[in-house]
Amino acid sequence: MSSSPSHPILIVGGGLAGLTAAHHLHEAGIGFQLLEARDRFGGRILSVGTTGEPSGDGFDLGPSWFWPGMQPAMGDLVHRLGLHAFEQNNDGDLIVQRNSHEAPQRYRGMRQEPQSMRLVGGTGAIISALAERLPPRSVLLNARVTHVSLDGHEVVVQFVDAEGSSHKLRASHVLFALPPRLLEANVLFSPALDFTTSERWRRTPTWMAPHAKFFAVYDRPFWRDAGLSGSAQSMVGPLVEIHDATTASGRAALFGFVGVPALERAAIGRDAIVAASVQQLARMFGPRAASPRATLFKDWAEDPLTATADDRHAAGHPNPDRRPWVSGKWREYISLAGSETSLREPGYLAGAVEAAARTANSIISRLTGSERPVDVEQGNLKP
Protein backbone atom coordinates (compact mmCIF):
# COMPACT_ATOMS: atom_id res chain seq x y z
CA MET A 1 0.00 0.00 0.00
CA SER A 2 1.35 3.40 -1.00
CA SER A 3 0.74 6.67 0.78
CA SER A 4 0.87 10.25 -0.50
CA PRO A 5 1.20 13.70 1.08
CA SER A 6 -1.76 15.60 2.41
CA HIS A 7 -4.03 17.78 0.27
CA PRO A 8 -6.30 20.60 1.41
CA ILE A 9 -9.32 19.04 -0.31
CA LEU A 10 -10.12 15.64 -1.81
CA ILE A 11 -13.05 15.31 -4.21
CA VAL A 12 -14.50 11.84 -4.67
CA GLY A 13 -16.44 11.53 -7.92
CA GLY A 14 -15.70 12.94 -11.37
CA GLY A 15 -19.22 13.49 -12.66
CA LEU A 16 -20.81 16.88 -13.25
CA ALA A 17 -20.93 17.71 -9.53
CA GLY A 18 -17.33 16.70 -8.84
CA LEU A 19 -15.93 18.52 -11.85
CA THR A 20 -17.99 21.63 -11.10
CA ALA A 21 -16.73 21.68 -7.52
CA ALA A 22 -13.16 21.20 -8.73
CA HIS A 23 -13.63 24.03 -11.22
CA HIS A 24 -14.68 26.45 -8.45
CA LEU A 25 -11.84 25.38 -6.14
CA HIS A 26 -9.32 25.76 -8.96
CA GLU A 27 -10.61 29.26 -9.80
CA ALA A 28 -10.23 30.19 -6.12
CA GLY A 29 -6.65 28.90 -6.02
CA ILE A 30 -7.49 26.05 -3.63
CA GLY A 31 -5.44 22.88 -4.09
CA PHE A 32 -7.38 19.64 -4.54
CA GLN A 33 -7.13 16.06 -5.71
CA LEU A 34 -10.06 14.48 -7.52
CA LEU A 35 -10.57 10.70 -7.48
CA GLU A 36 -12.87 9.01 -10.01
CA ALA A 37 -13.58 5.28 -9.86
CA ARG A 38 -14.33 4.92 -13.58
CA ASP A 39 -11.82 5.08 -16.43
CA ARG A 40 -13.65 8.18 -17.67
CA PHE A 41 -15.19 11.35 -16.30
CA GLY A 42 -18.92 11.99 -16.33
CA GLY A 43 -20.53 9.44 -14.03
CA ARG A 44 -24.12 9.11 -15.17
CA ILE A 45 -23.43 11.47 -18.06
CA LEU A 46 -22.36 9.32 -21.00
CA SER A 47 -22.51 10.42 -24.65
CA VAL A 48 -21.53 7.67 -27.10
CA GLY A 49 -21.27 6.86 -30.78
CA THR A 50 -22.89 3.95 -32.57
CA THR A 51 -20.32 1.49 -31.19
CA GLY A 52 -21.02 2.51 -27.60
CA GLU A 53 -17.70 4.31 -27.13
CA PRO A 54 -17.62 7.86 -25.69
CA SER A 55 -17.98 10.39 -28.48
CA GLY A 56 -17.71 14.13 -28.90
CA ASP A 57 -20.87 14.01 -31.02
CA GLY A 58 -22.76 11.33 -29.19
CA PHE A 59 -26.11 10.02 -28.06
CA ASP A 60 -26.89 10.56 -24.39
CA LEU A 61 -27.25 7.27 -22.55
CA GLY A 62 -27.74 9.29 -19.38
CA PRO A 63 -29.38 12.72 -18.98
CA SER A 64 -30.00 14.86 -22.05
CA TRP A 65 -32.13 17.86 -21.15
CA PHE A 66 -31.92 21.07 -19.21
CA TRP A 67 -34.15 24.16 -18.99
CA PRO A 68 -32.04 27.35 -18.78
CA GLY A 69 -35.02 29.61 -18.09
CA MET A 70 -35.85 27.62 -14.97
CA GLN A 71 -32.25 26.64 -14.16
CA PRO A 72 -30.11 29.77 -14.54
CA ALA A 73 -27.02 28.26 -12.87
CA MET A 74 -26.95 25.49 -15.45
CA GLY A 75 -27.49 27.96 -18.27
CA ASP A 76 -24.76 30.21 -16.87
CA LEU A 77 -22.27 27.34 -16.69
CA VAL A 78 -23.01 26.31 -20.27
CA HIS A 79 -22.46 29.92 -21.39
CA ARG A 80 -19.23 30.41 -19.43
CA LEU A 81 -17.80 27.19 -20.87
CA GLY A 82 -18.52 28.40 -24.40
CA LEU A 83 -20.91 25.54 -25.16
CA HIS A 84 -23.95 25.69 -27.41
CA ALA A 85 -27.45 24.31 -26.93
CA PHE A 86 -30.31 23.45 -29.27
CA GLU A 87 -33.99 22.70 -28.78
CA GLN A 88 -35.28 19.18 -28.34
CA ASN A 89 -37.27 18.45 -31.50
CA ASN A 90 -41.01 18.46 -30.81
CA ASP A 91 -42.24 19.64 -34.21
CA GLY A 92 -44.90 17.29 -35.52
CA ASP A 93 -47.50 14.89 -34.23
CA LEU A 94 -47.43 12.57 -31.23
CA ILE A 95 -48.02 8.79 -31.33
CA VAL A 96 -49.91 7.13 -28.45
CA GLN A 97 -50.70 3.46 -27.85
CA ARG A 98 -52.95 2.81 -24.87
CA ASN A 99 -53.24 -0.99 -24.98
CA SER A 100 -52.13 -4.02 -26.98
CA HIS A 101 -55.57 -4.42 -28.59
CA GLU A 102 -55.51 -0.93 -30.07
CA ALA A 103 -53.38 0.34 -32.91
CA PRO A 104 -51.17 3.33 -32.16
CA GLN A 105 -53.06 6.61 -32.56
CA ARG A 106 -51.76 9.89 -33.95
CA TYR A 107 -52.45 13.20 -32.19
CA ARG A 108 -51.56 16.78 -32.99
CA GLY A 109 -48.41 17.77 -31.17
CA MET A 110 -48.06 20.80 -28.95
CA ARG A 111 -45.02 22.95 -28.30
CA GLN A 112 -43.39 22.09 -25.02
CA GLU A 113 -43.21 24.81 -22.37
CA PRO A 114 -40.66 25.29 -21.04
CA GLN A 115 -38.68 24.06 -24.03
CA SER A 116 -36.21 21.26 -23.28
CA MET A 117 -32.66 22.03 -24.43
CA ARG A 118 -29.79 19.73 -25.36
CA LEU A 119 -26.08 20.39 -25.72
CA VAL A 120 -24.35 20.35 -29.09
CA GLY A 121 -22.08 17.30 -29.00
CA GLY A 122 -24.16 15.60 -26.31
CA THR A 123 -24.25 16.20 -22.57
CA GLY A 124 -20.73 14.81 -22.42
CA ALA A 125 -19.59 18.13 -23.91
CA ILE A 126 -19.95 19.84 -20.54
CA ILE A 127 -17.89 17.10 -18.90
CA SER A 128 -15.09 17.47 -21.45
CA ALA A 129 -15.09 21.25 -21.12
CA LEU A 130 -14.82 21.13 -17.32
CA ALA A 131 -12.17 18.38 -17.28
CA GLU A 132 -10.00 20.22 -19.80
CA ARG A 133 -9.84 23.25 -17.48
CA LEU A 134 -8.40 21.30 -14.55
CA PRO A 135 -4.69 20.63 -13.99
CA PRO A 136 -3.99 17.01 -15.05
CA ARG A 137 -1.94 16.33 -11.93
CA SER A 138 -5.00 17.06 -9.76
CA VAL A 139 -7.27 14.37 -11.23
CA LEU A 140 -6.97 10.60 -11.05
CA LEU A 141 -9.10 8.04 -12.89
CA ASN A 142 -9.51 4.36 -11.94
CA ALA A 143 -9.38 5.30 -8.26
CA ARG A 144 -12.19 3.54 -6.38
CA VAL A 145 -12.51 4.75 -2.80
CA THR A 146 -13.15 1.96 -0.28
CA HIS A 147 -12.38 3.33 3.21
CA VAL A 148 -12.40 6.71 4.91
CA SER A 149 -11.06 7.26 8.42
CA LEU A 150 -10.22 10.07 10.81
CA ASP A 151 -6.65 10.50 12.03
CA GLY A 152 -6.49 13.49 14.32
CA HIS A 153 -7.62 16.46 12.27
CA GLU A 154 -7.06 14.77 8.91
CA VAL A 155 -9.18 12.46 6.80
CA VAL A 156 -7.43 9.37 5.43
CA VAL A 157 -8.94 8.12 2.16
CA GLN A 158 -8.04 4.65 0.92
CA PHE A 159 -8.62 3.75 -2.73
CA VAL A 160 -7.89 0.94 -5.14
CA ASP A 161 -6.43 1.52 -8.61
CA ALA A 162 -7.06 -0.36 -11.87
CA GLU A 163 -4.47 -3.01 -10.98
CA GLY A 164 -6.00 -3.63 -7.58
CA SER A 165 -3.23 -1.90 -5.64
CA SER A 166 -4.29 0.05 -2.57
CA HIS A 167 -3.28 3.66 -1.89
CA LYS A 168 -3.94 6.28 0.77
CA LEU A 169 -4.33 10.03 0.59
CA ARG A 170 -4.80 12.54 3.42
CA ALA A 171 -6.84 15.71 3.36
CA SER A 172 -8.27 18.34 5.65
CA HIS A 173 -11.70 17.84 4.04
CA VAL A 174 -13.35 15.41 1.60
CA LEU A 175 -16.15 16.39 -0.77
CA PHE A 176 -18.18 13.39 -1.92
CA ALA A 177 -19.74 14.21 -5.28
CA LEU A 178 -21.71 11.00 -5.68
CA PRO A 179 -25.15 9.69 -4.70
CA PRO A 180 -25.65 9.27 -0.93
CA ARG A 181 -26.98 5.72 -1.38
CA LEU A 182 -23.95 4.67 -3.40
CA LEU A 183 -21.62 6.24 -0.84
CA GLU A 184 -23.31 4.44 2.06
CA ALA A 185 -23.17 1.09 0.28
CA ASN A 186 -19.58 1.16 -0.99
CA VAL A 187 -17.44 3.19 1.42
CA LEU A 188 -16.57 2.10 4.96
CA PHE A 189 -16.28 4.93 7.50
CA SER A 190 -14.17 4.78 10.65
CA PRO A 191 -15.50 5.91 13.06
CA ALA A 192 -18.80 4.59 11.77
CA LEU A 193 -21.52 6.96 10.63
CA ASP A 194 -24.36 7.40 13.07
CA PHE A 195 -27.43 5.32 12.25
CA THR A 196 -29.63 8.29 11.33
CA THR A 197 -27.13 9.56 8.75
CA SER A 198 -26.40 6.19 7.15
CA GLU A 199 -30.08 5.29 7.00
CA ARG A 200 -30.97 8.60 5.38
CA TRP A 201 -28.25 8.13 2.76
CA ARG A 202 -29.44 4.60 2.03
CA ARG A 203 -33.06 5.68 1.63
CA THR A 204 -32.30 8.52 -0.80
CA PRO A 205 -33.18 7.39 -4.34
CA THR A 206 -30.35 7.65 -6.85
CA TRP A 207 -31.33 9.54 -9.98
CA MET A 208 -31.17 7.36 -13.14
CA ALA A 209 -30.13 4.24 -11.20
CA PRO A 210 -33.34 2.18 -11.68
CA HIS A 211 -33.70 3.10 -15.36
CA ALA A 212 -32.63 1.89 -18.79
CA LYS A 213 -32.52 3.72 -22.13
CA PHE A 214 -32.68 2.31 -25.65
CA PHE A 215 -31.58 4.03 -28.89
CA ALA A 216 -32.22 3.12 -32.51
CA VAL A 217 -29.90 4.94 -34.93
CA TYR A 218 -30.95 5.57 -38.53
CA ASP A 219 -29.49 7.12 -41.68
CA ARG A 220 -31.96 9.99 -41.51
CA PRO A 221 -34.91 11.14 -39.35
CA PHE A 222 -37.57 9.69 -41.65
CA TRP A 223 -40.39 10.26 -39.13
CA ARG A 224 -40.08 14.01 -39.66
CA ASP A 225 -40.95 13.53 -43.35
CA ALA A 226 -44.28 12.08 -42.20
CA GLY A 227 -44.98 15.06 -39.94
CA LEU A 228 -44.12 13.18 -36.76
CA SER A 229 -42.14 14.69 -33.90
CA GLY A 230 -40.55 11.39 -32.88
CA SER A 231 -42.35 11.60 -29.54
CA ALA A 232 -44.54 8.71 -28.46
CA GLN A 233 -46.18 7.30 -25.36
CA SER A 234 -47.08 3.69 -24.78
CA MET A 235 -48.91 1.68 -22.14
CA VAL A 236 -47.78 -1.48 -23.96
CA GLY A 237 -44.00 -1.17 -24.01
CA PRO A 238 -41.31 -2.15 -23.59
CA LEU A 239 -40.61 1.54 -24.24
CA VAL A 240 -43.01 3.80 -22.35
CA GLU A 241 -41.76 7.21 -23.48
CA ILE A 242 -40.03 7.84 -26.81
CA HIS A 243 -38.34 10.94 -28.23
CA ASP A 244 -36.36 12.16 -31.21
CA ALA A 245 -32.68 11.78 -30.27
CA THR A 246 -31.20 13.24 -33.46
CA THR A 247 -28.02 15.15 -32.68
CA ALA A 248 -27.30 18.77 -33.58
CA SER A 249 -25.06 17.50 -36.40
CA GLY A 250 -27.95 15.49 -37.87
CA ARG A 251 -27.14 11.95 -36.73
CA ALA A 252 -30.66 10.50 -36.62
CA ALA A 253 -32.03 8.42 -33.77
CA LEU A 254 -35.05 7.64 -31.65
CA PHE A 255 -34.67 6.85 -27.97
CA GLY A 256 -36.98 5.47 -25.34
CA PHE A 257 -37.11 4.86 -21.61
CA VAL A 258 -37.59 1.17 -20.94
CA GLY A 259 -40.68 0.63 -18.78
CA VAL A 260 -39.73 -2.88 -17.68
CA PRO A 261 -38.61 -2.92 -13.99
CA ALA A 262 -34.94 -3.62 -13.32
CA LEU A 263 -35.40 -7.13 -11.91
CA GLU A 264 -37.52 -8.13 -14.91
CA ARG A 265 -34.98 -6.63 -17.32
CA ALA A 266 -32.28 -8.77 -15.75
CA ALA A 267 -34.44 -11.89 -16.21
CA ILE A 268 -35.47 -11.09 -19.79
CA GLY A 269 -32.01 -10.11 -20.99
CA ARG A 270 -30.63 -7.30 -23.11
CA ASP A 271 -31.08 -8.94 -26.52
CA ALA A 272 -34.78 -9.65 -25.99
CA ILE A 273 -35.46 -6.08 -24.83
CA VAL A 274 -33.59 -4.61 -27.80
CA ALA A 275 -35.49 -6.82 -30.26
CA ALA A 276 -38.85 -5.98 -28.69
CA SER A 277 -37.99 -2.26 -28.70
CA VAL A 278 -37.19 -2.28 -32.43
CA GLN A 279 -40.46 -4.10 -33.12
CA GLN A 280 -42.33 -1.50 -31.07
CA LEU A 281 -40.77 1.38 -33.02
CA ALA A 282 -41.84 -0.29 -36.26
CA ARG A 283 -45.42 -0.53 -35.01
CA MET A 284 -45.45 3.11 -34.00
CA PHE A 285 -43.36 4.79 -36.72
CA GLY A 286 -43.72 2.42 -39.66
CA PRO A 287 -41.61 -0.29 -41.35
CA ARG A 288 -38.57 1.96 -41.87
CA ALA A 289 -38.07 1.92 -38.10
CA ALA A 290 -37.57 -1.85 -38.20
CA SER A 291 -34.09 -1.56 -39.69
CA PRO A 292 -31.86 0.71 -37.59
CA ARG A 293 -28.23 0.91 -38.58
CA ALA A 294 -27.27 0.51 -34.92
CA THR A 295 -28.86 0.12 -31.50
CA LEU A 296 -27.67 1.23 -28.08
CA PHE A 297 -28.85 0.03 -24.69
CA LYS A 298 -27.80 1.19 -21.24
CA ASP A 299 -29.20 -0.35 -18.07
CA TRP A 300 -28.06 1.88 -15.22
CA ALA A 301 -29.32 -0.62 -12.63
CA GLU A 302 -26.58 -3.00 -13.84
CA ASP A 303 -23.84 -0.38 -13.40
CA PRO A 304 -22.11 -1.03 -10.04
CA LEU A 305 -20.66 2.49 -9.99
CA THR A 306 -24.18 3.94 -10.22
CA ALA A 307 -26.62 1.54 -8.60
CA THR A 308 -26.90 -0.63 -5.51
CA ALA A 309 -29.26 -3.53 -4.84
CA ASP A 310 -31.77 -1.03 -3.44
CA ASP A 311 -31.96 0.69 -6.82
CA ARG A 312 -33.45 -2.37 -8.50
CA HIS A 313 -36.73 -1.25 -6.96
CA ALA A 314 -37.78 2.15 -8.29
CA ALA A 315 -38.43 4.55 -5.41
CA GLY A 316 -39.38 7.77 -7.13
CA HIS A 317 -37.44 10.99 -7.57
CA PRO A 318 -35.27 12.49 -4.81
CA ASN A 319 -36.89 15.46 -3.06
CA PRO A 320 -35.25 18.68 -1.83
CA ASP A 321 -34.18 18.34 1.80
CA ARG A 322 -32.54 21.17 3.74
CA ARG A 323 -31.38 19.05 6.65
CA PRO A 324 -27.58 18.63 6.90
CA TRP A 325 -26.39 15.50 5.11
CA VAL A 326 -23.61 14.86 7.64
CA SER A 327 -23.79 14.85 11.43
CA GLY A 328 -21.72 13.74 14.41
CA LYS A 329 -17.94 13.45 14.28
CA TRP A 330 -17.83 13.63 10.50
CA ARG A 331 -19.62 16.94 10.11
CA GLU A 332 -16.48 19.08 10.02
CA TYR A 333 -14.55 16.74 7.74
CA ILE A 334 -16.79 15.67 4.88
CA SER A 335 -19.44 17.21 2.62
CA LEU A 336 -21.93 15.73 0.14
CA ALA A 337 -22.46 17.44 -3.20
CA GLY A 338 -24.11 14.95 -5.56
CA SER A 339 -27.19 15.98 -7.52
CA GLU A 340 -29.44 14.25 -4.98
CA THR A 341 -28.34 16.75 -2.31
CA SER A 342 -29.44 19.84 -4.26
CA LEU A 343 -31.66 22.27 -2.41
CA ARG A 344 -33.64 23.04 -5.55
CA GLU A 345 -33.16 20.52 -8.38
CA PRO A 346 -32.25 17.12 -6.88
CA GLY A 347 -31.90 14.49 -9.56
CA TYR A 348 -31.21 16.87 -12.45
CA LEU A 349 -28.12 18.23 -14.19
CA ALA A 350 -28.90 21.60 -12.64
CA GLY A 351 -29.03 19.95 -9.22
CA ALA A 352 -25.46 18.73 -9.60
CA VAL A 353 -24.32 22.25 -10.56
CA GLU A 354 -26.19 23.86 -7.65
CA ALA A 355 -25.03 21.39 -5.00
CA ALA A 356 -21.41 21.50 -6.18
CA ALA A 357 -21.20 25.30 -6.35
CA ARG A 358 -22.85 25.75 -2.96
CA THR A 359 -20.61 23.16 -1.27
CA ALA A 360 -17.45 24.43 -2.93
CA ASN A 361 -18.31 27.98 -1.84
CA SER A 362 -18.66 26.83 1.75
CA ILE A 363 -15.25 25.15 1.64
CA ILE A 364 -13.60 28.15 0.01
CA SER A 365 -15.08 30.49 2.60
CA ARG A 366 -13.83 28.32 5.44
CA LEU A 367 -10.31 28.04 4.01
CA THR A 368 -9.90 31.67 2.98
CA GLY A 369 -11.95 33.34 5.68
CA SER A 370 -13.87 35.34 3.09
CA GLU A 371 -17.46 34.88 2.04
CA ARG A 372 -18.05 34.51 -1.70
CA PRO A 373 -21.43 35.84 -2.92
CA VAL A 374 -23.65 32.93 -3.89
CA ASP A 375 -27.27 32.44 -4.86
CA VAL A 376 -28.01 29.61 -2.42
CA GLU A 377 -31.14 28.48 -4.25
CA GLN A 378 -29.45 28.25 -7.65
CA GLY A 379 -25.84 27.66 -6.68
CA ASN A 380 -24.26 30.07 -9.15
CA LEU A 381 -21.38 32.08 -7.74
CA LYS A 382 -21.86 35.76 -8.50
CA PRO A 383 -19.08 37.81 -10.10
Structure notes:
- The protein is an alpha/beta fold.
- It has two domains: 175 residues, FAD/NAD(P)-binding domain (3-Layer(bba) Sandwich); 165 residues, Polyamine Oxidase, Chain A, domain 2.
- The strands form four sheets. Strands 1, 2, 9, 10, 11, 12, 13 and 19 form an eight-stranded mixed beta sheet that branches. It has a seven-stranded mixed beta sheet with strand order 7-6-15-16-17-14-18. The protein has a two-stranded antiparallel ribbon with strand order 3-4.
- Strand 11 and strand 12 form a beta hairpin.
- The protein is elongated, with a radius of gyration of 22 Å.
- The relative contact order is 0.18.
